Amino acid sequence: QVQLVESGGGLVHPGGSLRLSCAASRSIFNIYTMGWYRQAPGKQRDLVASITGGGTINYVDSVKGRFTISRDPAKNTLFLQMNSLKPEDTAVYLCSMRPSRTDVKTYWGQGTQVTVSS
User: Fold this and answer.
1) What are the pLDDT digits (tens) for 26-82?
2) d(C-alpha 73, C-alpha 82), whole Å
3) Count of H helices and E strands in the chain?
4) Residue 110: CB partners within 8 Å, gap ≥ 6?
């Protein structure tokens, strides 16, 4: 079993920045893929950014140029740097990990709330 614990959310004004962290209970070396998702009230959970074990990164169009996903394997931690935040970025942000390419099993954190409001 893998545990993922997110932190770094909070309330920020439009245009502000936050850095989210996701601490994993196991090594993230050679993980097939990890990602950040977000879910706003009454809406589906959507992928925000992902990074593969080989370092391939993808972003949803709405965050390109504003968000940066990164990882520190030495600390088993995934990050999401969020700049130029907008009210529409308000959501619960969740970390995910799919360890294996051949197994669809995916682990999820509990999420951290991000609220962008003036």
Assistant:
1) 999 889 999 999 999 999 999 999 999 999 999 999 999 999 999 999 999 999 999
2) 20
3) 0, 11
4) 5, 6, 94
Output the DSSP codes for 71-91.
EEGGGTEEEEEE-S--GGG-E
Query: What pLDDT is recorded for position 68?
Result: 98
Structure-token match 């993980």, residue found: 31
Q: What tokens were used for 83? A: 């700049």
SS3 of residue 55 by DSSP: coil
pLDDT tens-place string over residues 72-85: 999 999 999 999 99
pLDDT at res. 1: 87
Distance between CA atoms of 43 and 49, rounded to whole angstroms? 18
Cα torsion through 69, 25, 106, 37, rounded to 10 = -30
